[in-house]
Design a protein that fits this description.
By secondary structure, the chain is mainly alpha-helical. It has 2 helices and no strands. The chain has one domain. Keywords: Membrane, Transmembrane, Transmembrane helix.
């Protein structure tokens, strides 16, 4: 009976560890997506704000 309870406790700890690792990976993936999406928004805003300089100033020099 005691061996069964110890094994069950080990399984619970292993399950908890796997869930924690999965949660960390999910958060990391989501934060990476949000960071690069925000970077894309900043670049797009810069392109729209100064489109003339991006196309004309360096094109003819």
């Amino acid at each position: 009976m005691i061996a069964f309870l110890l094994k069950e406790q080990e399984n619970f700890k292993a399950r908890k560890t796997r869930i924690r690792a999965g949660t960390r990976i999910t958060v990391l993936v989501e934060l990476t997506y949000l960071f690069f999406n925000a970077l894309n928004v900043v670049i797009t805003i810069c392109e729209h704000a100064d489109a003339f300089a991006l196309t004309e100033i360096y094109y003819y020099s």
